[in-house]
Amino acid sequence: MNLRDLVYGLYARRVERRLDLSQGPKHIGVILDGNRRWAKAAGGTTEQGHRAGADKIAEVLGWSEETGVEIVTLWLLSTDNLDRPAEELGPLLGIIEDTVRGLAETGRWRVHHVGARDLLPERTQRVIKEAERDTEGISGILVNVAIGYGGRQEIADAVRSLLHEQAGRGTTIEDLAEILDVEHISEHLYTRGQPDPDLVIRTSGEQRLSGFMLWQSAHSEYYFCEVFWPAFRKVDYLRALRDYAARHRRYGA
Fold it and tell me: Taking the CA atoms of the chain, what radius of gyration do you get in angstroms?
């Protein structure tokens, strides 16, 4: 361990000791940004960047266990990413599939997919389905893997699902318009039944949500971190929790 790592380790322990975990977030959303830029800066390939980013996930979930987080939503692939060239998308999907399998194989976390599954290749769909099945009874952190996910797509899918449900009950459009409220939409989101994220973390210095959990993040706190995702350290994670604990949540007020 070099001197820099030692200093960061000591600082991380200091921050952790001062955290009031009773005031910490229970659901964290993470936008895993910066894999390609990290690889470019390191002289590596895009695939190596995505591999390094995937390797970081289990580490972050371990920190989440230590700090009392109950749900972590990881944005692994957006609907926009599905339009990438085949030579880039193919390896990326392979990395994501390996990641999902790895999460399930630990036996520590329950895997749940959020996203438009029908837009994904059959192989990817099968890997996700198997991971959900194999981890269904696990009581550890619920890990939402956002794959083929877009916030607008989710809301459109929720409305479509709601319309199908109400049509099956014989409800007319006019009748639905009279009773429709936000809860009707919430009950058809990919995360239905889950609490909304308390904290959304985005790495790489970008300060925007890019469509991540548009509906659910209405009252979330945001934390933007300069470091690229593969280089995200425990001290960065703890700083995000410290920043969250210091805020007075107004829930839109």
Answer: 19
* Each residue's pLDDT tens digit, 86-138: 999 999 999 999 999 999 999 999 999 999 999 999 999 999 999 999 999 99
Q: What is the pLDDT of residues 174-195, one digit of tens each?
A: 999 999 999 999 999 999 999 9
The DSSP letter of residue 164 is: H
Q: Strand (E) positions, the chain?
A: 27-31, 71-78, 110-114, 142-149, 199-202, 221-224
**Is there a contact between 137 and 105 (Cβ–Cβ < 8 Å)?**
no
**b/e map 101-111, b = 16+ CB within 10 Å:** eebbeeebbbb
Cα–Cα dist 235/251, whole Å: 27
Question: What are the catalytic residues?
Answer: 33, 81
70 vs 86, 193, 227, CA distance in Å? 36, 14, 24
Q: Which residues are annotated as a binding site?
A: 33-38, 50, 78-80, 84, 202, 208-210, 221
Q: What are the structural domains of the chain?
A: 3-245 (3.40.1180.10)
Binding residues for Mg(2+): 33, 221
- Annotated binding-site residues for substrate read 34-38, 50, 78-80, 84, 202, 208-210
Q: What is the DSSP letter of 118?
A: G
Q: For residue 13, what are the contacts with CB-CB under 8 A and spacing of at least 6?
A: none
Q: What is the pTM of this model?
A: 0.91
Beta bridge partners of 24: none
